[in-house]
Amino acid sequence: xxxxxxxxxxxxxxxxxxxxxxxxxxxxxxxxxxxxxxxxxxxxxxxxxxxxxxxxxxxxxxxx
Length: 64
Hints:
Number of strands: 0
Radius of gyration: 17 Å
Helix content: over 70%
Mean pLDDT: 90
Shape: rod-shaped
Distance between the termini: 28 Å
Order of helices and strands: HH
Number of helices: 2
Strand content: under 5%
Structural class: mainly alpha
């Protein structure tokens, strides 16, 4: 589940975090963690949207 955009944000964030660790750049590390969290939220929202759509479709079938 989730979406491609969330996964890309998490991947980009991990790369930023690792670059920050390698260079000692605390700001870059923090940006990376933020990007990863943003990606996780996008995945969660995508999962929730899929569940709502599934429930809606199920309700439509039950009305027939």
